[in-house]
Prior knowledge:
Layout: E1 2-5, E2 10-17, E3 29-37, H1 39-49, E4 54-60, H2 66-73, E5 76-81, E6 87-93, E7 99-103, H3 111-124, E8 130-134, H4 145-157, E9 163-167, H5 170-180, E10 184-185, H6 189-196
Parallel strand pairs: 1-4, 1-8, 2-6, 4-5, 8-9, 9-10
Antiparallel strand pairs: 2-3, 6-7
Helix pairs in contact: 3-4, 4-5
Amino acid sequence: MIVTLTAHPALDRSVALDAALRPGEVQPGAPGREDAGGKGMNVARAIRGAGHEVLAVLPLASDDPYAALLAATGACAYVVPVAGHTRVNLTLTDPAGVTTKINLPGAALSPAEAAQMIQTVAAASEGAEWLVLAGSLPPGVSDDFYVHVIDAVRERWGAAAPRIAVDTSGAALAAVVERGRPDLIKPNEDELAELAVVALET
Length: 202
């Protein structure tokens, strides 16, 4: 089994415009699709689609519209109750394929909610082969949040702890590499250059 953590889920909403985006004007658009997003959830869907067992952990309010989209994925999920609602990522696409993205901020997690999420991930990791920590961190948690998750999982399960993969960026990635000792990281070239303090020539 593989466990994924989506600490900062997003409701991904797309709209198809009938013409090029005209800032400052009102123009019609056709509803595209809505998906339960966030990098960890995207990973969970891919794992499930490949026929493997996956357990997704994420924060979610009971009245959040994200819940219906999550249920539609069919993924097995451990939900950590929180007060705030999931952020929305809006994608506008015109007939020529030009895309404009608008990403709204997510709700901040309280210290108690963050602590509960760490405990839930540690409990969910029993018997797992891999734990995937993927995506950005929500407001309200420190840059080393993933480090605390890793420490809690390894402290609880010792030699039986799952291998840990991390896909994040910026200060969160730097903290994981410095102190978390993950088994796998997946930076892109820009993230790797930032981590190594190397300027890309092209």
